[in-house]
Amino acid sequence: MRELIYYVAVSLDGYIAGPEGQFDAFLVEGDHLAGINAEFGDTIPTDIAAHLGIDQSGGRFSTVLMGAATHAVGLPDMPSPYRHLEQVVFTHRELEPAENLTTTDANPVEVVRELKQRGEGSGGGRDGGTGDIWLCGGADLASQLHGEIDRLVLKRQPFLFGSGIPLFAPGDYAPVRFDHVRTRDFDSGVALTEYVRRP
């Protein structure tokens, strides 16, 4: 079955963006870029990857999920930021039509369960929807989907925001246990840490 993977950059104090939604403090230079992009190149916006010469044809993901605020980060320049993937934006607002992008106000849990049933998570982002599912953000969507997240891949950034948008919005649910899979440390201070949901 396909996995839902919450892959996101996060500060040491647990924020994925600052108080106004800003994320410009995240390090965009350093040895972590090449290491992370080699493994997760399919999480780079399509046009940026093309500009950098990054091949996205054999990536891990075939679908990306976003809340409206996460999708809005690229507007108006990138209405379809990850058009090499199937993009699903959860919103009650009407958005302009964009290539390979679907909007829905359906229950995120039901949508994810349907997506997971499509096929086995064997990678290959352009293979017709059978690669894994990338939860791009944001905090409210992650909180709603906490019970469906199979894996966390956190790009821990070496600074504190102090306040802002948390990794998960506050929710009324029991503790969920994840087991550490690996951590890869970079000289830049960024660490890529992966956890898998305990059965």
From TrEMBL:
Domain Bacterial bifunctional deaminase-reductase C-terminal residues, every copy: 4-191
Pfam families found in the cross-reference section: RibD_C (PF01872)
UniProt name for this protein: Dihydrofolate reductase family protein
